[in-house]
Specification:
heterodimer, A: mainly alpha, 11 helices, 0% strand, elongated, B: mainly alpha
Chain lengths: 240, 480
């Protein structure tokens, strides 16, 4: 009892009279937890693995990812299959940390108003995505997703994409000088391939349309991870 | 003072003009933020309501709703009530009127730029940190202005002793600075696009270290400080326990910062971080309830007034919702429970019991107490305030209950497996359809809450525009 009253007196006499000291002690109190968690997270030993079986997004996929962010797709769709039986049945292999190696920013999401998209890459043909964005209810009756018809009209600007690739390189994505200077050519090449696949389904569009970039990104999702898991390159499955 | 002859009396006035400005901004942005919430709620039940316009889609408007409610409604409420109470607790006028006004107009400018850029899809995509880097810089500048103004006032105080409310304000200012800066470190590609310097799981970790502590240090600590000032004032009772306020303050600010990883349970985040997040979240129950109990027990001997005084009604329900959501939070942070609740509407319900129940209700209580004093008027329609209270309370209950049911249902249906070991509901759409009735129910609760808010707006406008109370002449027998 006397002990606690003395502590109280200390608090009242010293801390509650010296605002600067109070602010300093508070700063220390709020910093400890952050430091203890953040510092190890950025070490090789305790942080996420950085595998070499994952490669950076192509310029067209970067453009698609920017559209994914702009439209707030992550608000309704997660990109994180949890290691649970029902999730493996519904979505496929659970997500490995290494798969996100080049994800600036992360897009794990926090809500599943729609299904998880981590393993959506390769699940549907390009034409399905095209129709789904034009009118989600044409492919998924009763869907509550908005129509994204403007993606079919709008174009991406290679200069913008080059600025993005360049900025991503600065934050640590392993693009070469040739990758940065070759953005326009890469965009055209990958865009043409998607346009050709869409044409076989009777859809006419141009390689610089936003929908083409978004399809490129969606078809890429989870592919590196899936291939690595099939090849046995990832760490052994944990017991869940 | 022994030698009273040498003591000079200083005369000063509080700067209540700045409090009035922040108060009006709170009311205006509160309406806007909740209206956007209502629109996005309708969009989930009836998606074509966006009229196929890009800037009205759910994906672009939900960030506007969360940012408006957190930074515009709660933010302005914090600033109004902090400026009001700090001056009185320190017996000093705010440090510098120019800084106060730069703070006010800077903050409103930030809100307006958020309201323009978010519907345009200009976003960093991190929750409650969506604003792009030029706006982030403006936030940092305005926040520093606020800090200088606050600590300048503290330095010039006439009351040596710092009351508990001020501890919470100090923690708010310090912690938000650290969190906001480290989570928003980006490399710009243009004025409207940037990339986080962190990648993948590390970026997710930094985001939720920030994200959960935005809840802690923007929606909890400042409002606990306000509770410690306004609840005793409204109840005309001293705080129940000084010792409890010391213990729960330090425990709260120390424990909260660890809890972020509970947003990433079962994710690819390293397990040690998930476990730390879970353990510290559960421990957080103790200081949270310490605060709740200190608030509720302050009302001992004043419970009869809760029956008649709408201000106390709002505050009691606010503190009770604080207790309920800080119980639900630690429960949801248990891995197994989180495995069911994560990604579902349950989390939306949880957030709103905190936002509507705690932040909203205590703000309304403070406004009904403060506005008549700020403008020196009687509250125009006291009965309306009581009606507002009931509309809001029933609205929150409808909201949270519908989201609990919807969340549990979708969580259970997502994971249900039949006898053959196959998914019982393999089509995701079959689960989506089952949620629609609960979305309408949620909408009815939200509508009641907003109608209550509109009654408050009308009531406060009528109060401000009403006549000053008549000064009563006091009768007394004349001396001849």
């Amino acid at each position: 009892m006397t002990d606690t009253t003395q502590k109280e007196r200390f608090h009242r006499r010293v801390l509650e009279n010296k605002a600067g000291l109070f602010a300093v002690v508070t700063t220390i109190a709020i910093s400890i937890g952050g430091i203890v968690e953040i510092v190890p997270m950025f070490t090789q030993a305790a942080g996420p693995e950085k595998p070499d079986w994952v490669s950076p997004y192509t310029p067209l996929e970067v453009a698609g990812r920017d559209i994914y962010i702009r439209e707030g797709c992550y608000v309704c769709h997660s990109q994180m299959v949890r290691p649970m039986r029902a999730e493996l049945l519904r979505y496929g292999e659970w997500t490995r940390a290494g798969e996100y190696r080049y994800d600036h920013p992360f897009l794990l999401g926090s809500r599943r108003i729609g299904p998880d998209l981590q393993r959506v890459g390769g699940k549907y043909p390009d034409a399905w995505h095209y129709e789904h964005m034009r009118d989600p209810r044409s492919t998924t009756p009763g869907s509550v997703m908005p129509m994204y018809a403007w993606l079919l009209e709008r174009s991406i600007d290679p200069a913008d994409v080059q600025a993005s690739v360049s900025a991503l390189r600065k934050v640590g994505v392993s693009y070469s000088d040739a990758d940065v200077s070759g953005v326009a050519a890469s965009l055209a090449q990958q865009g043409q391939a998607i346009v050709a696949r869409l044409a076989t389904a009777g859809i006419q569009t141009a390689p610089d349309r936003e929908i083409v970039a978004l399809i490129a990104y969606l078809q890429r999702l989870g592919q590196d991870g899936r291939r690595a898991i099939e090849a046995g390159l990832t760490a052994p499955t944990r017991s869940e | 003072m022994a030698n009273s002859t040498s003591t000079e009396l200083e005369r000063f006035v509080y700067d209540d003009a700045i409090v009035r400005k922040f108060t009006l901004a709170t009311i205006v942005w509160g309406f806007v933020g909740m209206l956007v919430g209502l629109i996005v709620a309708i969009e989930l039940a009836a998606p074509r309501v966006n009229m196929d316009l890009p800037w009205l889609t759910f994906g672009r408007l939900r960030p506007l709703h969360t940012n408006a409610v957190i930074f515009a409604f709660a933010g302005n409420a914090i600033f109004a009530a902090v400026y009001y109470s700090t001056q009185r607790l320190l017996k000093a006028r705010m440090f510098n009127d120019l800084l106060s006004n730069l703070h006010f107009w800077g903050w409103q400018l930030i809100i307006v730029s958020a309201a323009i850029t978010l519907p345009l899809g200009i976003s960093q995509s991190k929750e409650y940190a969506e604003l792009e880097w030029p706006i982030d810089l403006a936030v940092a500048v305005v926040w520093i202005i606020f800090a200088v103004n606050f600590f300048g006032t503290v330095a010039r105080r006439r009351e040596r002793h710092l009351y508990v409310a001020l501890w919470f304000y100090i923690a708010t200012i310090v912690a938000i600075t650290v969190l906001y800066v480290f989570n928003n470190l980006v490399v710009p590609a243009s004025l409207t696009r940037s990339y986080s310097i962190y990648a993948g799981v590390q970026d997710a970790f930094m985001q939720w270290w920030y994200g959960h502590n935005a809840v802690a240090f923007f929606l909890t600590t400042p409002f606990l400080g306000l509770m410690y000032y306004f609840l005793p004032r409204a109840a005309e009772r001293p705080v129940y326990s000084y010792r409890l306020s010391i213990i729960h303050f330090w425990a709260l600010v120390f424990l909260y910062i660890w809890t972020g990883p509970h947003h990433l349970l079962y994710s690819a985040l390293p397990d040690w971080a998930q476990t730390l997040g879970m353990v510290f979240s559960i421990m957080l129950l103790a200081p949270s309830w310490g605060g709740m109990l200190n608030g509720l027990l302050t009302l001992r001997g004043a419970w009869d007034r809760v029956r008649t005084d709408p201000v106390l009604k709002f505050m009691v329900v606010a503190v009770s919702f604080y207790g309920m959501s800080t119980f639900e939070g630690p429960m949801l942070a248990i891995r197994a429970v989180n495995g069911l609740g994560h990604y579902t509407n349950w989390i939306i319900g949880h957030v709103h019991s905190g936002a509507l129940g705690w932040v909203g209700m205590i703000t309304f209580g403070i406004l009904y107490w403060m506005v008549p004093r700020l403008w020196d008027r009687e509250l125009a329609y006291p009965k309306w305030a009581t009606t507002h209270f009931w509309l809001a309370t029933i609205g929150i209950v409808l909201y949270t209950v519908s989201m609990w049911v919807a969340g549990l249902m979708e969580g259970l249906m997502w994971r249900a497996v039949n006898d053959q070991g196959m998914l019982a509901t393999p089509a995701f759409m079959d689960i989506v359809h089952r949620l629609t009735p609960y979305y309408w129910l949620r909408l009815s609760g939200g509508t009641m809450y907003l109608v209550g808010l509109l009654m408050m707006v009308w009531n406060l406008i009528a109060t401000v525009r009403g006549a000053r109370p008549q000064v009563q002449a006091i009768p007394a027998p004349a001396t001849s």
